[in-house]
Amino acid sequence: MNERLATLLGTADRGNLPPHAKIVATLGPASDSPEMVRRLIEAGVGVFRLNFSHGGLDDQLTRLRTVREAAWALRRPICVMGDLQGPKMRVGQVPDLCPGGGIVVNAGDDVLFRVNHEEAEMNGSGDDVVAVLGTTFDSIFTDVEPGQRVLINDGAIRMLAVERRKGEWLRCRVTVGGRITSSKGINLPESNLSVPAITPRDWKCVEWAVRHGVDALALSFVRTPGEVLELKEKLEGMVSVEREHGSDPLANRIPVIAKIEKPQAVEQLDAIVEAADGIMVARGDLGVEMETQQVPIVQKYIIERCRHLGKPTIVATQMLETMIESPIPTRAEASDVANAIFDGADAVMLSGETAVGKHPALVVETMRRITEAAEAWLDHLPHTPSEADLPEFRFRSAALALGAWHVVEKAGVKIVAVWSESGGMARYLSQTGFRVPILAFSSSGSACRRMNMLGGVIPVLTDPPADGTLSAWTDHVESLILERRYANEGDAVVLIAGKPLGSVLGQDAMAILRLGDAGSGFRAYDED
Hints:
528 residues, alpha/beta, TIM Barrel, M1 Pyruvate Kinase, Domain 3, Pyruvate Kinase, Chain: A, domain 1, 3 domains, 8-stranded parallel barrel, 7-stranded mixed β-sheet, 17 helices, 22 strands, 36% helix, elongated
């Protein structure tokens, strides 16, 4: 084995630094005990996902409080993201009418979906119809046209619509058969459904999330940018009311993560990316709604557009799926996680692996190791800054972030430290594509938690120095870096801040700190 390859295959020497990409873990019955939450944080989780599709709000409140208590004990600013269910269409109740349970349909059978049909039947509408089913949304009876596909159970069962009586029933012919059981999901990839992106139940979850201080919300089944903007507008109104009762002033900016899982969303991707605060590549339903071979291409396209438009991305679904049961992943799964890192994803997400799997902590440790190995490879490659097409670049903070990238490259800088009170400057730095860690200081707990969704950013919750000077902050940055062993004496650190420390939109100065050099950084900065 040649020396370069041996180096790349070895464990990267990052000291105590966490990986650049963040790990998102879904909480569930397998992972929501206080002991397990603490283990998951120690293993590398930076963001916990509350899946509102499963469990009641009382269950989610218990999980949220467990995370907050563990994060406080470990002194980590851990982000909690609520994931709204959205208008997921499902089959109604299906009794066990066939051996093995449910109803079995075969290729060539006709199935009838009927409005207000509460419980499925066999041969309920004549000899030529094998089964009659109900659904959770009536739009299937108005929006699906003959010739369009109807998919059940993540596409395992496939049908074509052949006849419709609008508002009453839809007749479908099975092309790929299988077993249908209660509440299995229905996908309609070729139909434009007249259902709201946010259901009444979702709005209850939104109100709950605002009331209890959830850090971010993921919006499912996004089709248009208007759906994202609707949620953001309502959120601003809800949080403004909460602010009157003394919550964090910076909490009036709850980020909205748009989940891309519909072909219609891919068609309007740029507008959705611009409307949202981040994007999740939700490959579960996306892989059902689109042809399987298209999903890897769409994933790369989404990440590339997000990098160009300056928004973080999360890659989700089936990343280490076999570890729900197995203590080791497949080689293909390891490659999948690594390729998401190579593509430039800010975060990779675990779903059932941590929610219901047998090895929650082990799967997080495995994902962290794969991420670190992939990033070690990236660190040896030539790198150029991401020329994000941000309208904010005409403002000083975003322009300064791009300039800082060149200083980092030319001066061999090991770390960037920035005072980013609301997290905006940290986002600019993150999306410029730094391959060095970004220490982001803020006195806002909510801002620090949300910055934990940004690739490469290590949030630091702290008050400004008592005298408010940049010189005192320089001392604090140096002490923290050396104490945590993020870098060594003699290493260069870029400092970005402004006066007064702790203000929003205050970054307007940059300096180079040489660790151990008493005269470097902002120590000679003119404070007058």
